[in-house]
Amino acid sequence: MTQLTRLDPSHLPAIITLHHRVIADLPPGNAASETDQFFADHLDACGQIFGAFDGDRLMAYCVLGLPRETDPNFGTDHHLPPDQLGKVAHIDGVAVDPQWRGQGWQRRMVEHRIEIARKCGRTIALSTVAPTNFPSLISTVSTGHAIHGLIAKFGGNRFLLRRDIGPDQDAKFPSAPDRAIWCASDDLATCRKLLDDGLIGLFCQSSPHGTAPRIGWVPAIPA
């Protein structure tokens, strides 16, 4: 099986090339367009980047953000108290070459970053996904991240997702209960109402013919 390896500054040009190749094929607003400096910083200073190769060619990469005290922190979008911001890990950008799609790379790269984040002492994994980025949404929710919010960010709408990853907190994958309320991920008015009503999006079902997946909403469990 192809291994994920931690990338270093020598891989920066390949990361940037793959990023722009993938972004060019996506509808506007579906993924953040990152700067070269973002990737350079996340190779070491405020995160780690992992990649998989076909020979010498980078075919997939994923970014793990480990924000420092002065760095932007997704926890502020979740209104986390200051003493929890240092526990946050960002499950950030991913790119997979079209030749490698459909092989479960997004899910595998989420799980890999969760394990590294734990080793770095982080206990709260936060991510953002556009409601219309169907593959990323399905992959991220299927790895135990729940939708806790919906805001304008990165030039489009973004679901705010959270998974607690402390030493005694394994992801649970229960079946959707009968009481779950379902709506399409791109039905933003309904999604916002359900979030305002105190529900979280814990389940995600694929839909046929490339249409929006359905999100299953249940009441949030009080902390």
From TrEMBL:
It comes from the Bacteria. Transmembrane segments: none annotated. SUPFAM superfamilies: Acyl-CoA N-acyltransferases (Nat). It holds the Pfam family Acetyltransf_1. One of its GO terms (molecular function) is acyltransferase activity, transferring groups other than amino-acyl groups. PROSITE patterns: GNAT. Gene3D superfamilies: 3.40.630.30. Residues 2-166 form the N-acetyltransferase domain. InterPro entries: Acyl_CoA_acyltransferase (IPR016181), GNAT_dom (IPR000182). This is N-acetyltransferase domain-containing protein. It comes from Thalassospira xiamenensis M-5 = DSM 17429.
